[in-house]
User: What shape does this take?
Amino acid sequence: MRVTFATEAAPGRPNEDFVAATPEAAVLLDGAGTPRGSDSGCSHGVAWYSRTLGSTLLASMTPGASTLAELLAEGIKTVSSLHDGTCDLAHPGSPSATVIMLRRTNEALEWLVLADSVLLLDLVDAAEPMAICDDREAQVGVLYRADMDALDSGTDEHVAAHRRYVETLRSYRNRDGGFWVAATDPLAAYQALTGSMPTGQVRAAALLSDGASRLVDRFNLATWREALEILGQRGPADLISRVRAAERSDPRGERWPRGKTYDDATAAHVSLGTAE
Ligand SMILES: [Zn+2]
Assistant: This one.
């Protein structure tokens, strides 16, 4: 695999996304931010969580090792063991992250998608790319986000509504009828969307945090096919700069209501090279 990626924090904040790759594997994580004034029980923070879990996963993803879900469950346990002596891991706001894992073996391309990052697969025999996204959090979120979306971004009222929204959703985290993310419960790994395909059937893949996929799935400024073309021809940084331009054009969230005016944005493009 040939992998190119770019990641950019929302202005003025630490980057809570993480992306990394080897010639056989790629991972992308999007840490769920703790809103200002909200507690998490962890002194390390969300950026540490995504970086530590992401590098643990990548190191474990050698060909022929366990399934991706097993590796994710092990990774969650490993990261918990690094701070269960110093932090309150039972806290409902303890750091969490979305996870995409992609691994190439001799025969197959395998994937795992947990929570709302997007994996695109450009298939040899399909006109449209396959978009894999776990939208359970959005399904819960739609019940609670009307108040927040009705307020102008950047106002104190919007900040307070966003905090209430995030805290409300915590009670749905990692339970049936709610949504699943990587946090402290290893069993969340087995709730991920997983699959595999013979390597010859996939031309390319893209991994996007929701701060990057919003160009397509919130702003409707490109299709998935166009996003893949931007990534393959102009590169991941170009896609992120288009996201930032759209965000700057709508600073108050009037055209596109959203929790965060700017979000950490990360995109990776993976060329499988088999069909080129
Ligand atoms: Zn901690």
